[in-house]
Amino acid sequence: MKRSFLLALAAALVCPTAGEAHVKWFCAYDTTIPPVALQDVLTPAFVFVAAWFATLMFLAYLVDQQINRHGWLKPIERCLLQCVPLIPRAVRIAVCIFFLVLWIGGNTILTPELKTTSVWVPWLQLAIAASTLWRRTLIFAAAGITVLYVYAVRMYGAFHMMDYPIFLGLAIYLGLDAFTYAPFAKLKLPALYFNVTLTMMWGAVEKFAYPYWTFPLLADHRALTLGIPFDKFMIIAGFVEFSLAFFMLTGTALLRLSCLALLTLMASAIPEFGKIDAIGHFLILVTLAVMIIAGQSGVRLPGVHQRGRVFAYSGTLTFAYGLTLACLFGVYYGAQFVAGR
Known about the structure:
By secondary structure, the protein is mainly alpha-helical. It has one domain. It is 73% helix and 0% strand.
């Protein structure tokens, strides 16, 4: 049993393409149907994979701290940091391109499955794209993205839109970037980091709660699973996504490697799933590239923990990893309960 799980883990790490494609863009889904009951999610298979990934996270933090303390990657970091001044302009260009594509399509609110027939939506998207051309008008771009998000909540429900906090992160980033006030500049990247990682971690929990949504996709791309049962493949794919996203928020020296790994996994899905996947993940891919350049988000443990022993520090972060997963499970299933599912 353990050997088969280790094989499954290796396979998911090597070819997680189907797991990284957003299922709502390609498969039938119904958020009015309750998710898999928690007792059916927390199977022995799930517990085994969770323990395995917790161990991997602990080891990753150990290595991360050693590399960070010795400064072995400092030359690479210095080269990348030279590109940091280009980040605001790159984000603005990416947002401009994204909303121009949506405007040309004319029937999408923010992501491929969020369809609309409202005539004002494409023109607002064009206005958002135009607002990114000048720094002083970025506040209007931020407001426009927020309006589209609220409109999508009204059309598809708050629970559905909890899949996409990245758009709120981008709105906050652009709104803060419209000002030259120094404290705002320090908040831009943490806000963007937090919302993109929350997007990825929420998507991972969805893989646990609604694994059967992805089964038709896996059936059409069966070779990607290397013969692993679909239910076990989804558990591993969820943990791969959750673990990389959490490390992106809490890592130090190896944070960029985590971002690069997730960017590679998501980009590898594009040849398989085409332009829908490319457009849908475009802003996330750009944000991951930004994180590779900028490095740490500013999320750190208090200084007393940082000065402690490496094992204690790594153990604390690994505990936070497990606690975050438990909290997201609680929020996910709690939101379903409140919605009356």
